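PROTEIN DESIGN WORKSHEET
SECTION A - STRUCTURE
LENGTH: 264
TOKENS:
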């Protein structure tokens, strides 16, 4: 197994560039801030960006918890990739991660300056400072399962294969504002979520009136419970199925919350 490292100080755009580097070097797995990512899917780990303190985030990124490191190592062994990319703020950090995960030392160290221009690095630092946002190299629908209630924005990056036959592929990333951000926590009050759900349900075909709306919250996401009256003559099963789908899409789109279920 060959280990590659992408190194750069915090906020210089490593996570933003990770999939591009992996694509160009035909690397199958990416280790970034406590997560193990394969292509467009988070397959193991716990993100450091979910920690409530910077110290906790550092410990999580270094896989200091035995169970955390064990789960990721087990998944790596199952896949047994030819190449793996580790992101870190320094060469020393990458070597520590490789050691904890029982991986070989890095074969190649790639500095962020090798894949991003001074202007791009400067812009990345400015965005981190002004907005307190971080990038996770995985799609929003993957990330939000572990970030319910966090601020999530999708990004898209177009990859072009360096070969005779050009290949263009879209890789989606997610932007999050961690709990420990200096800009404060981001949350949405339950009554706001319930109002959005009620409004979405009212707009669904066949629904005559929306009654009581309640919400159950957990670390994994939310469950909505909605009482409705159906218009006379409407097909009940089709009407409720459509309303469920419409409410889920609307709430997830407007709040970035992970909606586990809509019970109508």
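SECTION B - SEQUENCE
RESIDUE ASSIGNMENT:
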């Amino acid at each position: 197994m060959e280990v590659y490292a992408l190194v750069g100080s915090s906020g210089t755009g490593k996570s933003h560039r990770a999939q591009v580097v992996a694509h160009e070097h035909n690397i199958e797995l990416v280790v970034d801030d406590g997560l193990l990512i394969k292509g467009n899917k988070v397959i193991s780990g716990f993100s450091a960006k979910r920690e409530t303190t910077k110290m906790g985030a550092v410990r999580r990124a270094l896989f200091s918890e035995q169970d955390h490191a064990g789960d990721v190592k087990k998944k790596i062994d199952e896949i047994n990739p030819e190449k793996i990319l580790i992101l870190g703020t320094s060469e020393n950090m990458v070597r520590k991660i490789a050691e904890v995960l029982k991986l070989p030392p890095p074969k190649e160290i790639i500095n962020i300056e090798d894949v991003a221009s001074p202007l791009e690095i400067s812009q990345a630092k400015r965005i981190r400072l002004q907005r307190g946002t971080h990038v996770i190299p995985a799609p929003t629908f993957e990330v939000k399962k572990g970030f319910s209630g966090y601020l999530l924005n999708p990004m898209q990056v177009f990859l072009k294969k360096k070969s005779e036959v050009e290949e263009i592929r879209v890789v989606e990333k997610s932007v999050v504002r961690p709990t420990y951000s200096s800009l404060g926590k981001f949350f949405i009050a339950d009554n706001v979520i319930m109002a959005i759900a009620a409004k979405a349900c009212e707009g669904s075909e066949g629904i005559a009136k929306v009654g009581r709306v309640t919400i159950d919250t957990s670390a994994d996401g939310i469950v909505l419970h909605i009482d409705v009256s159906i218009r006379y003559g409407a097909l009940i099963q089709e009407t409720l199925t459509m309303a469920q789908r419409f409410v889920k899409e609307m709430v997830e789109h407007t709040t970035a919350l992970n909606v586990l279920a809509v019970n109508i």
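SECTION C - NOTES
The chain is about 35% helix and 30% strand.
Residues 139-143, 180-185 have pLDDT under 50 and may be disordered.
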